[in-house]
Amino acid sequence: MTRKVGVAIIGAGTAGLNAMGQVRRAGKSFVLINGGHLGTTCARVGCMPSKAFIQVAEDFHRRHIFKRHCIIGGDDLGIEHDNLMEHVRDLRDVFVDRVLGSTTDNLGDELVEGYARLTGPNSLVVNDEQIEADAIVIATGSSPIMPEVWREFGDQVITTDDFFEMETLPNSMAVIGLGVIGLELGQALARIGVEVTGIDALERISGLCDDVVNQQAINIMKSEFPMWLGQHAELSRAGDKILVKAGDNQVEVDKVLVSIGRKVNTAGLGLETLGVPLDERGVPEYDRATMQVGDLPVYIAGDMNGDVQILHEAGDEGKIAGYNAAHQSAERFVRKPLLAITFCDPNIVTVGASWDTLKDRDDVVAAEMPMGPVGRALIMGKNKGVIRVYAEKKTGKLLGGAMVAVKGESLGHLLNWALQQEMTVFDALQMTYYHPVVEEALQAAFNNLAPLIEQQPEYPIGMKHE
Fold first, then answer.
1. Which of 21, 316, 348, 406 has the smallest C-beta neighbourhood within 10 Å, fewest atoms?
2. pLDDT, tens digit, for every residue of 89-104?
3. Burial zone of 207 (CB within 10 Å; 0-12 exposed, 13-18 middle, 19+ buried)
4. Is residue 121 reached through a cis peptide bond, with omega within 30 degrees of 0 on the bond before it?
5. pLDDT tens across 102-154, in order?
């Protein structure tokens, strides 16, 4: 017997759950199909457990500044690695339970646990059940990449999905891939006493495209653990350890963390039955403003499209896909400016247009503010880094920026909101900046950018005339 529904949603991660919210709001019948664990990548193996681990490491690392602040006894502090991992898992389980408690726990037969395979743009099969839907949302997420040749090392070579299941931490570890999660966990591991070596095939870390910010970030991170950049890693056995080679460098470690990116989960989905071209990853071409595949009643959202694999982007895409699927429409939605944050210390942040896309344009200017002189950051003992901001040369319209800075997670939001409001650098300088706060560093970057703009205001910069 065939089940008929308004919308079939494949994947119960952030994108799928947001799509379900829109379908429910429209009053349409639906099924939510999910293979594997429930609870979203963010809650189980991503954003949340990593931040719990990072917070402990940052708190413990803070002891190094105690003497400067006239606090004694810091040298006697220690950390319990076994209990730390249990603490992280306990918090992880809280986050997962919260997700489940407000979403899938409340579903009846609308939740189908199994792996779906499309048989056409309006039909699929899961657990031998045939389902026909007026529209389909595909939000199957992504999985960490593990080179097949490295699987022979068993649990000595792990991915970020495995990391938080470790009962205890090794004495030494190589982190291959210094993007967001690799850099975050690499620094945190080093701060709690693990001997860490970071390796990346690129000369950039954390996905930075701005050379000035990238070099500052590298200098800061290299002061905490060695990094081999622009080198491909090779692994071999060395007794009970793993020998890691990269160029002329080599090190023996107890474990290797592989964080070289995530692949989209398209295998076995039957996307070829849609009758549209697929790219080399198996992803069909789609419209980013509607999330629609061609002119089909099929929409894709979240990590599985391989676009911007960030939670709030997945949420937005799920809402767009869910709305259009529920209404069988192709309404176009304005996407938000990029906001990407790496929660290392100091934070690394990219906002809006990347410098790679702007640096060769004659109509764009950039300015920077080093964190060294920033009073609030100096008091905190966190005055390393730099902020860079970009704008149109003629009008001063803000286009983007990048930074490695304390409280970058907050500064990045302010810059992102300014971009969303299509503000100029002069508009941004009309906002209030208290003293002393870290936000003054962003104000200083804007002040350094203002003289480079052709269309200068008649009145004092930062003041609004009645």
1. 21
2. 999 989 989 998 889 9
3. middle
4. no
5. 899 889 999 999 999 999 999 999 999 999 999 999 999 999 999 999 999 99
Token digits of residue 184: 């975050």
Distance CA 369, CA 349 (A): 14
Q: Which is it for strands 172-176 and 195-200: parallel, antiparallel or unpaired?
A: parallel
- Cα distances from 376 to residues 158, 328, 412, in angstroms, run 40, 52, 17
Instruction: Determine if the peptide bond prior to 284 is cis (ω within 30°).
Output: no
The full DSSP string for 319-335 is HHHHHHHHHT-----PP
Q: How far apart are CA 371 and CA 442, in angstroms?
A: 10
**Structural domain contains residue 272:** yes
Domain containing residue 438: CATH number: 3.30.390.30
**What's the one-letter identity of residue 313?**
E
Contact criterion met (CB below 8 Å) for 146 and 16? no
Q: Are 71 and 381 in contact (CB under 8 A)?
A: no
Residue-number span of the structural domain to which 132 is assigned: 2-39+103-144+263-327
